[in-house]
């Protein structure tokens, strides 16, 4: 069997168009502020994509670029100004941050109502209580990709590989709320391959290039690959060996062109959600 490749670009384009159509009906223009500290080349690419996608959806986007040596107090002052700015509905600080900055303190400084990354403890708490408000963009995008495949999550055995706060933990919460039976596996899990093989839905988010091999995948599983790993030869690969896994999976996301585009589309949706909640 050869699994279907899930076209994340297409699903993302449809969501972006949906957000743009809703924005066009609003009596105000939602505002998004993206803060980039330092000059990490990948972060610069992602921030540019966010800015362009927001503008294309009719969102007033601005990027605030700060030097790599920025002091934490200066970054916190920038966030305080954005919190107080009524034209800004969404604020996000691109990660990773330089080592002198405490990312946790920065995230906690963002007004939870403007936290379009969904990383603030208030929004994390809402999600884990089962009343999600602003949900982290990548796991939200994964749920939409799963929906696009038509896979039934209720009662399904789902495995989340990875337990990060940005992807693994919120992913597990969302799948649980969709009535899947969820296992979270990680670097200390005893037999990762065996755990993966039991999964009807497998979400890989470990950041280890092509770690999930074809024989880790159950026949007919739906596989979502969240990994984005740049190899020394310049190739971009996911956490799954895509061709091998596609030989067993019913459907699998490619890298690139799978989850990544959904992260950006969901950011636009979160910005719209935040604007509507703030402005009515
Ligand atoms: N504040 C945040 N920081 C980071 C997040 C986040 O959600 N919020 N996620 C990642 C980076 N990221 C968005 O910020 C992101 C990563 C990748 C893509 C994407 O579209 N990738 C393409 C491939 C792009 C390439 O060639 O490098 C794809 O998968 O098709 C979008 C957004 C960490 N930081
Ligand atoms: Mg991808």
UniProtKB/TrEMBL annotation:
- MF terms per GO, please? methenyltetrahydrofolate cyclohydrolase activity; methylenetetrahydrofolate dehydrogenase (NADP+) activity
Which positions are annotated as binding NADP(+)?
162-164, 228
| Coiled-coil stretches | none
**Pfam families recorded for this chain?**
THF_DHG_CYH, THF_DHG_CYH_C
Q: Which CDD domains match?
A: NAD_bind_m-THF_DH_Cyclohyd
Q: What is its EC number?
A: 1.5.1.5, 3.5.4.9
Gene3D superfamilies, per database record: Leucine Dehydrogenase, chain A, domain 1, NAD(P)-binding Rossmann-like Domain
Q: Which residues form the Tetrahydrofolate dehydrogenase/cyclohydrolase NAD(P)-binding domain?
A: 136-277
- What domain of life is recorded for the organism? Bacteria
Residues annotated as domain Tetrahydrofolate dehydrogenase/cyclohydrolase catalytic: 6-117
- Hey, which pathway is this one from? One-carbon metabolism; tetrahydrofolate interconversion
Is the keyword Amino-acid biosynthesis assigned to this protein? Answer: yes
Q: Which GO terms describe its cellular component?
A: cytosol
Catalytic reactions on record:
(6R)-5,10-methylene-5,6,7,8-tetrahydrofolate + NADP(+) = (6R)-5,10-methenyltetrahydrofolate + NADPH; (6R)-5,10-methenyltetrahydrofolate + H2O = (6R)-10-formyltetrahydrofolate + H(+)
List the GO biological process terms: L-histidine biosynthetic process; methionine biosynthetic process; purine nucleotide biosynthetic process; tetrahydrofolate interconversion
Q: Which UniProt keywords apply?
A: Amino-acid biosynthesis, Histidine biosynthesis, Hydrolase, Methionine biosynthesis, Multifunctional enzyme, NADP, One-carbon metabolism, Oxidoreductase, Purine biosynthesis
User: How the protein assembles, per its UniProt entry?
Assistant: Homodimer.
**Which HAMAP family does the protein's record reference?**
THF_DHG_CYH
Task: Give the family from UniProt.
Answer: Belongs to the tetrahydrofolate dehydrogenase/cyclohydrolase family.
Per the entry, what this protein does is: Catalyzes the oxidation of 5,10-methylenetetrahydrofolate to 5,10-methenyltetrahydrofolate and then the hydrolysis of 5,10-methenyltetrahydrofolate to 10-formyltetrahydrofolate.
Per its UniProt record, what PANTHER family does this chain match? C-1-TETRAHYDROFOLATE SYNTHASE, CYTOPLASMIC, C-1-TETRAHYDROFOLATE SYNTHASE, CYTOPLASMIC-RELATED
Protein name as catalogued: Bifunctional protein FolD
Biological source species: Rhodovastum atsumiense
């Amino acid at each position: 069997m050869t699994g279907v490749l899930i076209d994340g670009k297409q699903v993302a384009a449809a969501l972006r168009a949906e957000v743009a159509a809703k924005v066009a009906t609003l009596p105000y223009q939602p505002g998004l502020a993206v803060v980039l500290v330092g000059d990490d080349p990948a972060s610069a690419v992602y921030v540019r994509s966010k800015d362009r996608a927001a503008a294309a959806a009719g969102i007033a986007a601005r990027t605030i670029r700060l030097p790599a040596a920025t002091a934490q107090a200066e970054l916190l002052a920038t966030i305080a100004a954005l919190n107080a700015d009524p034209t800004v509905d969404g604020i996000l600080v691109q990660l990773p941050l330089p080592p002198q900055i405490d990312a946790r303190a920065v995230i906690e400084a963002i007004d939870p109502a403007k936290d379009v990354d969904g990383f603030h403890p208030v929004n994390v708490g809402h999600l884990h209580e089962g009343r999600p408000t602003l949900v982290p963009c990548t796991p939200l995008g994964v749920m939409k990709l799963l929906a696009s495949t038509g896979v039934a999550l209720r009662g399904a055995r789902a495995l989340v590989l990875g337990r990060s706060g940005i992807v693994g933990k919120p992913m597990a919460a969302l799948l649980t709320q969709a009535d899947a039976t969820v296992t979270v596996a990680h670097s200390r899990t005893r037999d990762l391959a065996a755990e993966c093989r039991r999964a009807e839905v497998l979400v890989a988010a470990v950041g280890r290039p092509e770690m999930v091999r074809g024989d880790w995948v159950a026949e007919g599983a739906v596989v979502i690959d969240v990994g984005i790993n740049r190899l020394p030869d310049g190739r971009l690969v996911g956490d799954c060996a895509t061709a091998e896994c596609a030989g067993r999976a019913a459907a699998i996301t490619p890298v690139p062109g799978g989850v990544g585009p959904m992260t950006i589309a969901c950011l636009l949706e979160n910005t719209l959600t935040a604007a509507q909640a703030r402005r009515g």
